[in-house]
Specification:
Layout lengths: L2 H121 L10 E3 L5 E3 L18
Antiparallel strand pairs: 1-2
Length: about 160
């Protein structure tokens, strides 16, 4: 082989190497761009996942706050119901006491009525006071017997003269 051929072989190899290097440099820029785009897309996906996680966290916090509010409202309603039950119980006791008071007052009024009726019978000239005038009842009321009252005779009828 002669030197010229050898030089041309070396020049050919250098040119091929230069072409390969240039091709690698040109494609490396494209690969770098694609790598950067891929990294950017991956970062965007991570950001989107983070936003989704934050949204879910906010939703869970809102549900927890709503549950706390519902629990507080239920507790307040239960306390209100207890208070109303206690008021109703006190009102029932108060009314039961009034029933006893009213019953005793009614009995006193019946006794007063019976006494007034007895006094009226003592004063009335048409009531026969010699016999037993009253029938006693189990509930404390006294009534005048009908056959004990004597009625005065009816006045004579007037006739008109013509």
């Amino acid at each position: 082989m002669d030197t010229t051929t050898l030089i041309w072989i070396i020049v050919g190899i250098v040119v091929v190497l230069a072409i390969v290097v240039v091709a690698l440099l040109v494609t490396a820029r494209g690969r770098r761009e694609r790598r950067r785009e891929h990294q950017h897309a991956r970062a965007e996906k991570m950001r989107e996942d983070a936003r989704e996680t934050e949204l879910q966290a906010r939703q869970h916090e809102a549900e927890a706050a709503r549950a706390r509010a519902d629990a507080a409202a239920a507790a307040a309603a239960a306390e209100d119901a207890k208070a109303r039950a206690a008021e109703a119980s006190m009102d029932a006791e108060r009314r039961a006491g009034r029933v006893d008071d009213h019953r005793a007052e009614a009995e006193d009024l019946r006794r007063q009525h019976a006494e007034s009726m007895r006094k009226a019978d003592d004063v009335d000239p048409y009531v026969d006071s010699s016999s037993d005038r009253h029938d006693g009842h189990a509930d404390g009321r006294d009534e005048v017997a009908r056959d004990q009252i004597t009625r005065p005779p009816a006045p004579p009828e007037r006739r008109e003269r013509t």
